[in-house]
């Protein structure tokens, strides 16, 4: 037990899931002793989930990496040498200089859990200035979601849901009260549904907490959710249950959708999914009869990869119900203006490296609309079908644990001569690294937190240090700046900031005052416009589009 002392409170933002809840940390004589939800925060309104409550275990946990480490002995054997930050930065910079000097800038890659915010932006900017196209985000439902949103609406951004005003929620395996999206918001939305009488239908192959609490649980064979969504859409189209006003005025390829649905009759879908035909018909009728229905995808917590077919099928349901950009429906949330940083001046080495194909194949002729395909990397490295990676940076990600087939991932990573981890804790991937340059945990650092977990407006939280660093760690943003400044021009010139905090303040621009004062910024002026043209080539919602025609 910590000794008694003066109690103080500090505000910050939780980064343990995509929810971005506001938190208040209670300190006794400067020691953090409890985490609570922050009252009045637009994401969680004072609530907090069990994961958020447990954040102090990360702060004080025994697996924290307390100082820069260099591997000695066999990779993965757990033998480390403590080194200074100066030595660590110098040795990694020397490796990078050697690769760049030999025309191998493109063989350096980075993996991050996210691609929004200043930390991910700095890491991607570093690779660009250095001469590599290989910034990769960990796979999640965002991959298919972003592609589906672009195909159907032409929007680069994320999907939001107006759950608070929905009266019928059709969930395709989404653990709405099992950690999906912003968990506290979903707990509160679920309570609201009970009060308003909104109906929740959970389609899932197991009796999860969400299924147990739903008004109806529809058991389904694993992996057939997209077929069921298309079966429901088939009934809505065949029986003319769809929202004719939206379909007639705002869609471009309804006949293409009708053709794509021909093979998804209720009888055919029953054979595939195991869901009775009468249930499929009843779901179609109930969904179409609701005033503000919404269909949701993203299985479990919504953080695992999903199929484009399922995303397009669920988006089609929302469009058929007229729930696109409507109260209680599914909204398109544009990415925003981006980070206001100066342009990068690349030299010949960087220009040549950036012309190389991405190691994961994203953006190629085979995958023209994909931004990241990290799941393909182990196979590509094992086959030797592309160039070899010579150095890999990993930030806030544990691919050896999170990617499928951990053995294949490990074998692939073992072929990479230099792996640099910014991990705060000794996880599976950090244990395989050659250098660990440990970052502060989220309670010790500043960081902008872009919240994309189903919110219906653009929201940025500010993580702030509620306690000074306990160990010899340093902000990953500062580490990237120091690595850049240890390299030759023009790389160093692309990073003119003295430290990460100065970089953060400049990047946030006119949002900084709100972030500093309130700990959060929300685009209060944003609201979905149901009458606005879509950003597709046709100006309408496109059920299938060119990229989706082969999927459905």
Structure at a glance:
The protein has 552 residues and is α/β, with parallel strands linked by helices. 34% of the residues lie in helices and 16% in strands.
Task: Tell me what the structure shows.
With 552 residues, this protein is of the alpha/beta class. 34% of the residues lie in helices and 16% in strands. It is built from 21 helices and 19 strands. It has helices spanning 50-53, 55-60, 85-101, 118-130, 141-153, 183-196, 209-213, 225-238, 244-250, 254-260, 266-273, 277-289, 308-320, 348-354, 377-383, 399-402, 406-413, 476-485, 500-508, 512-518, 545-548, and strands spanning 7-13, 22-28, 31-37, 69-71, 80-82, 108-112, 135-137, 157-161, 168-172, 199-204, 216-219, 293-296, 330-334, 391-395, 418-421, 435-436, 447-451, 459-463, 520-522. The strands form five sheets. It has a seven-stranded mixed beta sheet with strand order 5-4-16-15-14-6-7, covered by helices on one side. A four-stranded parallel beta sheet has the order 11-10-9-12. Strands 1-2-3 form a three-stranded antiparallel beta sheet, with no helix packed on it.
Keywords:
alpha/beta, globular, 552 residues, 19 strands, seven-stranded mixed β-sheet, four-stranded parallel β-sheet
